[in-house]
Amino acid sequence: MKKKTTLKDDISSLSDRYSRQVLFAPIGIKGQEMLAKSKIAIIGCGGLGSVLSSNMTRAGAGTLRIIDKDRLELSNLQRQLLFDEIDVKKKTPKVEAARNKLIKINSDIQIEAIFDEVDENNISDLIDGFDLVLDGTDNFKTRLVINRASVDSAVPFIYGAVAASFGMIYNVIPGSGVCLRCLFREEPSGENALNCNTVGIINTAVNIIASIQSTEALKLLTGNRDAMIKGLINIDIWDLSLDIIEIKKDSEYICPVCGDNDV
Length: 263
Ligand SMILES: [Zn+2]
Prior knowledge:
The protein is an alpha/beta fold. The chain is about 40% helix and about 15% strand.
């Protein structure tokens, strides 16, 4: 006869898989249980998205919804850690290849793969009921679409961008006063629109930006919201420089996104 499991057994098996993470005092059993109930939408499954989804899967998030419109190409393998040459040969959609890998890593969590482009028409449905949106995109236009939906739906959004050897991270927390539009009032264009197609990219830069985003996500989802970084994080892994720029609400500026929402 199969032994009936108790809550104690459940916690014991939970902490076995996650024992090293649970030992980390700011998370503990309570944080781990909160994480296990969390729902995270990851938009973009390239370099950043690979690391974000791997970290969240291994850490034990409850549900991941991964959205991306691209199929794999050979130039992706230099930095997109979830994929291999077979995926490229088959031209598999990134979300499908990602899900196939992730369910082998952790079969306890729900992983949904959506092969689609995110735009202003579908974003609200895609993040409805979720606790967090993680930015794995590669363009500012999509980030602004996510930012608006994040503000309108009061779903936190962790922005991350990377090119060459540097990148930025910012936590858009509804209620905190400054959204991504407040930070970047003009859309970057011309030589300011840096991306991996114009200035290249090294894989270590991708990994560190996504790791910082993942850490901020862990704080948010394990009851450590107060520990989240409040400024704009700038990091360059080539010269190992790190700045956190303090961001204050500008009372002169009426933000077209959060101005009326009292973010
Ligand atoms: Zn704003």
